Amino acid sequence: MLTRANIICCILTILLAGYLVFALITSNGMAAAATAPSSAPVLISVEGDDSTGFVTRREIAMLVKDYFKGGPVTPSQVPVLDIENKLNAIDNIEMARCTRRSNDRLWIEVVPMKPVARVFDGDSSYYVNRDGKRLTASLRYRCDVPVITGHLGGKHWTRRLMPLIDYVNADAARSQLVTAIKLCDNGDVILIPPFRGHVINFGAPDADIANKFDRLTTMYRDILPVKGWDYYDTLSVKFRGQVVATQRRPRQRDPLLVLDPDGDASDNEDISTMTVDPAP
Hints:
Helix content is 32%, strand content 22%. It has a ten-stranded mixed sheet. Strands 1-3-2 form a three-stranded mixed sheet. It has two domains: 42-112; 117-273, Rossmann fold (3-Layer(aba) Sandwich), CATH 3.40.50.11690. It starts with a helix and ends in a 21-residue tail after the last strand. By secondary structure, it is of the alpha/beta class. It is elongated, with a radius of gyration of 34 Å. The protein is built from six helices and 13 strands.
């Protein structure tokens, strides 16, 4: 005959056995999870929240998805350096970095292309960054940067132009004075101002920049308001300490107006007698 104590003992035995079975199943599952390869969640960040449109997080995810095919992988199995090299080789990307984080996640940081100028070279047009990296222009991209016309060539020209571009962009008044930069075969740079009728022969783009703009300021303040904004077709500041202005008379050789605010015209050979052919 079962007593009340016996019934309670049976119930406790059954409960204990059930607990042991549950604990065994749970521990086996945890051990399997610990030994099985885990997935490697990827965090992707794009500087500027994709505001330039040069690259998006979705595009980055599509570019790296092949590295996670074939089932779950652990972060240690992901070729971080391969991902970085692949992304950095893409024109739209300025810099990409892939790192493993302590929480078993991969972090891909991307800096979109940072153009410093847009180049028009014949029928082609592209953006260029400070290192000379190029990105073919597209209606998708919107970027307000200086315009360069002519053959930029290799990275050498980009490095030569950077001091001038930086100086122009550092001041709102100077940036409004230069609407485009033209590269000449002889190494001179022509600045195209917003005023119709004349251009500026700046000479070398990486020498005596501040003094050249000071001379241009003097010319615009003291001479052109009197003579007229289209009286000259070329203003040249390539000679040290002077502004050489060529009068607008197409197909003729014209005398020069020499503005010498520093009083050092002797640095050039008989500059007062020089003549130049006006731009066609």
